[in-house]
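One such given next:

>
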Amino acid sequence: MFKVISVSARHHSNNFLQSIEMIAQSEVEAIILREKDLSEDEYFLLAKKVKEICDKYNKKLIIHSFIDVAKKLGIKNIQLPFSKFIAVDNLHKNFESIGTSVHSVEDAVLAEKSGADYIISGHIFTTDCKKGLAPRGVELLSKVCNAVNIPVYAIGGIDDNSVAELSNLNCNNFSGVCVMSALMKSDNPQELVQKVKDSYSMKTDRSKYLLYAVTDRHWLNGRTLEDEVEQALKGGVTLVQLREKNLDFEDFCREAEKIHSLCRRYHIPLIINDNVEVTKAVDAEGVHLGQGDMSISKAREILGNEKIIGATARTMELAVKAEKEGADYVGSGAVFGTSTKSDAVKMSFDTLMEICKSVKIPVTAIGGITKENISELKGTGISGVAVVSGIFAEKDIYNSTLELRKKIEEIVNGK
């Protein structure tokens, strides 16, 4: 599970203890009290107050550097600079959880051999806390994660935007991030912590692609698009794509804002089809690009790393190319005959399986998928399905979506 740890920096807060109390009420895993400029006596007095706050909200407190303070307060969690960690023996006699900071692969390996329970690696991104020092980057973090078997946390310049750049780490022991100045400066730490988690999980959680509803207003039949989308949301779709081929920019934005507001109520990401400008204007969670649309790299430049970018890929070569260019997922099809696109060419299941095996990013199957034929996709390796008429052409959108959700879960989970 991806965790967020708060690292204190009282100079970034006008009311430090109030900030700590707000942070303690958020979904942070722990608070590291890191106030290196204080004397031991000053640190003890501050730690005592912070401990009272953490105890009040049942939040884990980690003492930084001051071993004797931790012992006096009965705190069993300690975070030490690497040099101090290496110099002190038998730390586990007094502490249940011991962490240290590393700045190289060699330090990480030695820390694990010396008994560290976890390590913090940084600084990953540019940060005011390390002015003038070049960031060590995601590449170092990846190397550190692959060199050890203990949990690894990233630190340095972490916020709800930069965290998305960590989403492509393919390391089982990457456990989360440590956030310092962004949290200490925040007026709403609870919201920021959730945004950090959402920004990371939005790019890494494959379950987001289980049931991907793609809108089509051809089947409104007297209903509004918002009504139809809400029925699909209630039925269990995990992603919504707003597909509007005939609206001008202003009308598209107005429609997107309504659907986005609805999706947010259900905590489901909204993807805009083929239109980067609308995606940016309404701050949707992502965009899906067809073969003839804007390049993935240009879309990434405009939207930033935190947004989801999907791409259509009808061959293994196109899927590999999309992944290399930075796509977060690919949509492949048509796997069945479809009336949604008159020019759609049917894709064989063998091709779909080749695509799934050739890339690490999620693959969603699309094209003519209904509750009657979805089970035929079992064993192809897909992460989910994108459904148009199989949801929106149904009279009972809610129950059709429920059935599709149940069946795709069985397929993806191998039941």
Summary: Residues 40-56 form the longest helix (17 residues). The chain has two domains: 3-204, 206-412.
